[in-house]
Design a protein that fits this description.
The chain is α+β, with helices and mostly antiparallel strands and 373 residues long. The protein contains 10 helices and 14 strands. Pfam families: 2OG-FeII_Oxy, DIOX_N.
Length: 373
């Protein structure tokens, strides 16, 4: 009797797995993404998107904690006032060590550029599905990769979002390699963010007690990839997530959000809302910067909630070295080590790290654990 029950359970489990794979393939083959589901008028979240109960219970029971004030750093006056310069560097250090996240204002990128970048992403996602299908692919060798969930077939649950991924540096794409509806602003936005990134890496170098150009000289700012996310309205936001809990697999992320809330950072084991600030950019430490700083700076876990009120748009700018320089090793910076502070990670190439990160997917565990000594 017991053997028959075990066999029946196993058969049911196999059937569930087969059904799930079929559902994932059907969703992927539609090439319409999550937005396509919403456009079709669905009223219930398909089960491939439903998060494990603990995830959405935690979301409902502890959506945020008002005791914490999310770091906001004003970069104005950095070059003119030595006192202001020190204040900014101290603030960057404190936020990078305690939060791994902060927002910056007066960062030098005009509001009109930020607004046009968000509008460009909106134009892409809100154009006809048949036009978008031309860009839909899981071939990561393509210059522009548009799909839903890079880890669709490996993650425990799919996320309620669609994404355009495009490497923009060190080799800027030719205009005809980018979608017409957003190509000009993608190029202009990249140029502006690369300048800001250079400045941020200088701040971070000094905050670590290193020479101003140390992180840039290491190649941390050589490469830049844009990830343009679209989070459609969700009929049952309590059952799924826009993006599940993760840390970023880069050196540094500069994030442009619209004014729709939803981003949360895990701080002192509490989920804290990142408040939308018009004209601000969100900056967060990536896994690779935590690795080379030997845990001085912290790559914080974060997530994005789904909502049933309005679509949400964000553009994440991932700074990392040129992936083609695959032989270059990154380990804890020698100047930060001592007898009392030995290396905590083994060295890795950026290409190997990113490959491991992407293969593992957003499964709720840190990719850094794989490299810890």
């Amino acid at each position: 009797m017991a053997a028959n029950i075990i066999e029946a359970d196993a058969a049911a489990g196999d059937q569930w797995v087969n059904d799930r794979i079929s559902e994932l393939r059907a969703f992927d083959d539609s090439k319409a993404g999550v937005k396509g589901l919403v456009d079709a008028g669905i009223t219930k979240v398909p089960r491939i998107f439903i998060q494990p109960p603990d995830d959405y219970y935690d979301k409902k029971s502890n959506p945020s904690n008002p005791r914490y004030e999310f770091p906001l750093i004003d970069l104005e006056g950095f070059s003119d006032d030595p006192n202001k310069c020190k204040e900014i560097i101290d603030s960057v250090r404190d936020a990078s060590e305690a939060w791994g996240f902060f927002q910056v204002i007066n960062h030098g990128i005009p509001d009109i550029v930020l607004e046009e970048m968000l509008d460009g992403v909106r134009r892409f996602y809100e154009q006809d599905t048949e036009v978008k299908k031309e860009w839909y692919t899981r071939d990561t060798t393509r210059r522009v990769v548009y799909n839903s969930n890079f880890d669709l077939y490996s993650a425990p649950s799919a996320n309620w979002r669609d994404t355009i991924f495009c490497p923009m540096a060190p080799d800027l794409p030719k205009p005809d390699e980018l979608p017409l509806v957003c190509r000009d602003i993608m190029i202009e936005f990249t140029k502006q963010v690369m300048k800001l990134g250079s400045f941020l890496f200088q701040l971070l170098s000094v905050a670590l007690g290193l020479k101003r150009d140390h992180l840039e000289d290491m190649g941390c700012a050589e490469g830049l990839a844009l990830l343009c996310h679209y989070y459609p309205m969700c009929p049952q936001p309590e059952l799924t997530l826009g993006t599940s809990q993760h840390a970023d697999g880069d050196f540094l992320t500069v994030l442009l959000n619209d004014q729709v809330s939803g981003l949360q950072v895990l701080h002192q084991n509490q989920w804290v809302d990142v408040p939308p600030v018009r004209g601000a950019l969100i900056v967060n430490i990536g896994d690779l910067l935590q690795l080379v700083s030997n845990d001085r700076f912290f790559s914080s876990e974060h997530r994005v909630l789904a909502n049933n009120v309005t679509p949400r748009i964000s553009v994440a700018c991932f700074f990392r070295s040129d992936l083609s320089a695959s032989s270059k090793l990154y380990g804890p910076i020698e100047e930060l080590l001592s007898e009392d502070n030995p290396p905590k990670y083994r060295a890795t190439t950026v290409k190997d790290y990113v490959t491991y990160y992407n293969t593992k997917g957003l499964d709720g565990t840190s990719a850094l654990l794989h490299y810890r000594i």
